[in-house]
């Protein structure tokens, strides 16, 4: 069955960087639109980055200019490069795949990973 496994989370200091990876099984990353979400305790899940199957990317204002979504089609991995990290970036990060519809300007995805924790301290 289709699975998405996130990795690369951990701790970083404010101003530091981390790169998250999402390794799917059951499909090729270039086949579907994919995205990254995050959720902190007590907060709503936030869509932060997306890449369409043809390569166009988009970002939430909260991360634009600091985070970069990309994919390595050869390795079949989706990445989220996070630079200039801030404490407010602390959250559990999830990758998702196959945007099937747009609701209130955000993709609704079919497949989801289990998430990886990112903690940023000042």
Record the SSE blueprint.
Elements: E1 3-7, E2 10-13, E3 18-25, E4 34-39, E5 46-51, E6 57-59, E7 67-72, E8 77-82, E9 91-103, E10 106-112, E11 116-121
Parallel strand pairs: 2-11
Antiparallel strand pairs: 1-3, 3-8, 4-5, 4-9, 5-6, 7-8, 9-10, 9-11
Describe it:
The chain is mostly beta strands and 122 residues long. It is built from no helices and eleven strands. It has strands spanning 3-7, 10-13, 18-25, 34-39, 46-51, 57-59, 67-72, 77-82, 91-103, 106-112, 116-121. The strands form two sheets. Strands 2, 4, 5, 6, 9, 10 and 11 form a seven-stranded mixed sheet that branches. Strands 1-3-8-7 form a four-stranded antiparallel sheet, with no helix packed on it. A hairpin with a 6-residue loop joins strand 4 (34-39) and strand 5 (46-51). It is globular, with a radius of gyration of 13 Å. The mean pLDDT is 94.
**What kind of sheet is the major sheet?**
7 strands, mixed
What fraction, in percent, of the residue positions are helical? under 10%
**How many helices in DSSP terms?**
0
Number of DSSP strand runs: 11
Range of strand content: over 45%
* Uncertain stretches of 5 or more adjacent residues: none
Give me the secondary-structure category. Answer: mainly beta
Instruction: Compute the separation of the termini in Å.
Output: 40 Å
Order of helices and strands: EEEEEEEEEEE
Radius of gyration over alpha carbons?
13 Å
Overall geometry: globular
């Amino acid at each position: 069955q289709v699975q998405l496994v996130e990795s690369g989370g951990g701790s970083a200091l404010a101003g530091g960087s981390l790169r998250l990876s999402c390794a799917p099984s059951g499909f090729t990353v270039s086949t579907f639109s994919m995205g990254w979400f995050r959720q902190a305790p007590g907060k709503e899940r936030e869509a932060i980055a997306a890449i369409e199957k043809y390569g166009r990317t988009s970002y939430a204002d909260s991360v634009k200019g600091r985070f970069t979504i990309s994919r390595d089609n050869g390795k079949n991995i989706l990445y989220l490069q996070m630079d200039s990290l801030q404490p407010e970036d602390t959250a559990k990060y999830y990758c998702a795949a196959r945007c099937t519809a747009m609701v209130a300007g955000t993709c609704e995805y079919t497949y989801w990973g289990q998430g990886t924790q990112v903690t940023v301290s000042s």
